[in-house]
Design goal:
Alpha-Beta Plaits; binds zinc ion
Length: 407
């Protein structure tokens, strides 16, 4: 390990070079006005080959709106001593738009190195993961040391816009790439000390409530059925009722309870003196994973009937988006190996966490593949002046190399 760590420590310039080249190639999804990931992927393929990582496979998801008509997913392998399982490190090629230009101190698409940091769109999310995983693999290749586990660097498309052309597509079309017992690390999220390992997420439901009453003059409410009023009551009843019924606590999560938050509201009547006959609002529900989408929706339906009776309205509930995912067990090998690596390399005692929102990890967990999300990041992602700390790229690479080398 000493040699490997020394090699990684000597890679600072290489890390900056890679970040600079990657940042030059904005891999924006066509759905946000970009061309996709092809240019960035072709550069990466070329760079990896030049540096001796030449076992590459590409799986292109067809997308007529993207450059070349494809969204590329690239795998780079370094053979290990053990035939199985493989150690996957999955990072994503795409980035989010720069956002408001005036808020940036430097050009978002030009990586700028200063004070031990690199600034630019994508340098943290998720190029830090891309670069640190490459350095980990490169150490074995350059030093001609065979890792214990076969390292599979997986660079996916379309993480920021739903993964339909990325990991979701890969699992639907190339499921056999992944074997039982494979270990997956997703360096796309974490904390500044590298101490949290994410293994679970809450059940997500985006609920739409469409209330239909009847319109009337505001001076004569008795002639109408106020959909806004009924909807407002439904908001309060849903929040109280669901949180009371699904009241479990789980300290893996922050907050440790299920949340029910009304969010978006559609416009109803344009004027103040009309009672609306129609009302639409949405609720963002993030329940602990011990609860299913079905049981939460059924309870929401039950609550809805009470409001319908009281106000004489009709309410249609629907799930706009919903997802429940498996958790990775706290005892799974990848959790233990990552904890051991963090302790050895960073001197950090890790703790397990669950999160409120939907990550790419869920796609893999749903297939029964143990997956952890971890990296050492300041969480400047998606913000203007996104940056990464160069030291973190190198130390994360060491943690990854340590996992690949564990007996
Ligand atoms: Zn990301």
């Amino acid at each position: 390990m000493r040699k490997i760590f020394e090699f990684i420590d000597s890679c600072e310039d290489l890390a900056v070079e890679l970040q600079t080249e990657l940042t030059k190639r904005p891999a924006l999804s066509p759905s946000v006005g970009g061309e996709g990931e092809l240019d960035k992927c072709l550069f990466l393929e070329d760079w990896l080959r030049k540096h001796g990582i030449d076992n590459l496979e590409r799986y292109d998801a067809p997308d007529p709106n993207a450059k070349g008509g494809v969204r590329p997913n690239l795998i780079a392998s370094v053979a290990g001593k053990k035939a199985a399982p493989c150690f996957w490190i999955m990072s994503h090629l795409d980035v989010v738009p720069a956002g408001e230009a005036a808020l940036w101190n430097t050009d978002p698409w030009t990586a700028v190195k200063k004070d031990g940091r690199i600034a630019g769109r994508g340098v943290e999310d998720d190029q830090q993961g891309i670069v640190s995983s490459i350095l980990a693999a490169l150490a074995f290749v350059k030093l001609k040391i065979q890792p214990e586990y076969t390292i599979k660097l997986l660079f996916i498309a379309d993480e920021e816009c739903g993964s339909a052309f990325g990991i979701d597509w890969l699992l639907k079309n190339k499921r056999s790439l992944f074997k039982d017992g494979d270990l997956v690390l997703v360096p796309d999220g974490g904390d500044p000390a590298g101490e949290t390992i994410e293994i679970a997420e809450k059940t997500l439901i985006w609920l739409k409530a469409h209330t239909k009453g009847s319109q009337a003059h505001a001076a004569h409410p008795e002639h109408g059925r106020n959909a806004c009023l009924a909807g407002a009551d439904l908001i309060l009843r849903l929040r109280k009722g669901l949180m009371e019924k699904f009241s479990a606590r789980d300290n893996l999560f922050e907050p440790d309870y299920s949340t029910v938050e009304p969010t978006k509201k559609e416009a109803n009547v344009p004027n103040i003196n009309t009672i609306p006959g129609d009302d639409v609002f949405y609720v963002d529900i993030r329940a602990l994973p011990c609860y299913t989408k079905r049981e939460i929706f059924d309870e929401a339906e039950r609550i809805k009937h009470g409001v319908e009776r009281e106000y004489g309205v009709e309410i249609e509930l629907s799930i706009v988006e919903g997802h429940e995912s498996q958790s990775t067990s706290a005892d799974s090998p990848i959790v233990k190996m990552l904890s051991a690596a963090c302790k050895q390399v960073l001197g950090v005692k890790t703790r397990l966490v669950g999160i409120g929102g939907n990550t790419v990890g869920a796609f893999l967990r749903d297939e029964g593949i143990d997956t952890v999300v971890w990296s050492t990041v300041d969480c400047s992602l998606h913000q203007p002046n996104e940056y990464c700390i160069i030291k973190n790229i190198l130390s994360d690479a060491k943690v990854m190399a340590h996992i690949a080398a564990q007996k």
